[in-house]
Amino acid sequence: MLSLLKTFFNRSFLALFCTQYLGAFNDNFFRTAMATFITYKVADMSAGSKSVVVSLAVALFMLPFFLFSAVAGEMADKLRKDVLIKATKGLEVLIDKGKMLWFVIPLALMFMANFYIGWMTAFFSVLYFLYYFLFIRREKEAGLF
Asked: For 9, 30, 69, 145, which has the most beta carbons within 10 A of its beta carbon?
């Protein structure tokens, strides 16, 4: 148990864990805010079409996981992982800055941002779990587990 806590509080692992946690929180917060915005503020839609649009937003977020997870795994095996992590997080910051204008941009752009965030999350989750596996393997070889 103590070795697991040492691993968790390791500086590089804790930073990656916090990044993954805050990224997941950000994705869920944006998706919930977008659903709330569609449900309560878009007045020119009927109630049935609002629920369809909210379901479409959730589907657009989940679709990249099915489409790009295999590609992300291939890229993670062939390219440098630190460069891919920095690139996905940098692109996520840029898109998140654009998402802060969610109340003035059209609904289609919010859907595109939702799809791109799902795409980046699909890439980063593969990199995160690959790095986690490599980190644990390195810790086992060092005799910490």
From this structure: 30
